[in-house]
Amino acid sequence: MNPRIYVTHLSIYLVLASLLVGCQPVSPPEAEGEVEWADSEAPPPGAAWDGEAFTFHKIRDDIYHAVGTGNLTVGCNSSIIINDEDVLIVDAHMTPAASWALRQELKNITDKPIRYVVNTHFHFDHAHGNQIFPDDVEIIGHRFTRDQLVSGASKRGRGWELFVESVPDRIAAIEARIAEEEDAGEKTELERQLGIQESYLAATNAIVATPPTMTLTERMTLTRGGREIQLLFFGRGHTGGDVVVYLPEERVLATGDLVVNGIPYMGDGYLEVWADTIEELKRLDVDVILPGHGQAFEDLEKLDHVQAYMRDLWTHIVAQHEAGVSAERAAQTIDMTAHAAHFPQLSEPGVHPHAVERAYALLDGTEQ
Q1: What's the pLDDT score for residue 199?
Q2: Count: domains in the chain
Q3: Domain containing residue 284: CATH number
Q4: pTM of this prediction?
Q5: What DSSP letter does each residue of 45-92 carry, written as one string?
Q6: Cα 30 to chain center, whole Å?
Q7: How far is CA 231 from CA 29, 102, 144, 248, in A?
Q8: Is residue 75 included in any domain, yes or no?
Q9: I need a surface site. Which of 9, 10, 311, 340 has the fewest CB within 10 A?
């Protein structure tokens, strides 16, 4: 498949930026046995990094957006909400090592205990750190998210294959480049990348997919001290169970991957209705959005731009499907450059093939 297709969505850049330094994400075999590190200060496998694993961007007093630095493969962003007596974390990252790193570095900001973790959806890069939290921490998610994690869906599918299953091959490729590299500086950087990937391999081997302990289907409200925290489901979008976390007093919204800072990954999405779900989201009184990938943003017109992109892409895909064009060919030829003013990476025809494959599967009734 033409490699160019894989870089036409900003989502790929966002995910790669958070997963790796200089190469694509990769992943290993499944964990063996019931491996647990809850309640332990000892680091789980793969928890090795230089410098800081996260940058904690202060959004409001006691509200932070934790973004990976690239020194450790962490996957997604987390939102941190420090309440009067406890802490709520939005999203648990992609491995126990990444979640453990967040917990350790969070001690530099607060000594309050973590009591709640919200999974915005079931994807591995947001939920595979759940197992690191002890029994007194409630893990909250949509019922769909729990069902997917219980069924093993977080360890299979297009995203898992693309971003995880190629780890050993990626490690081998870096090792080959190191053997051939003559420039000392370049070799040092490649060795740094190799270390990150080897840590990621060890961390992924340690995963035991752990589902939410508490679920919702439409909404849940937590009152922690003087703060109201709303967990809301507006409909299908990035997955079948995307939960957003809304702080009405602070006018802050954590969106997971329902909205990211750019074009989201669509390999498990519901493109036909996703833009309508975002329209419901826009009814909230919000000043700043904390996305699951990319930096926080205040320019809410970005929601309009991504909705326009999604509706246009769906129209193109349906037309290609009705014309009998293969999903692979459609991904190569669909032209979304009319949206390049808002998404500069759309410099030529071609869209991410997973978006088309998923839409075709929904149209054919082979996936739900």
Answers
A1: 84
A2: 1
A3: 3.60.15.10
A4: 0.88
A5: TT---SS-SEEEEEEETTEEEEEE-SSS---S-EEEEE-SS-EEEE--
A6: 20
A7: 34, 22, 14, 11
A8: yes
A9: 340
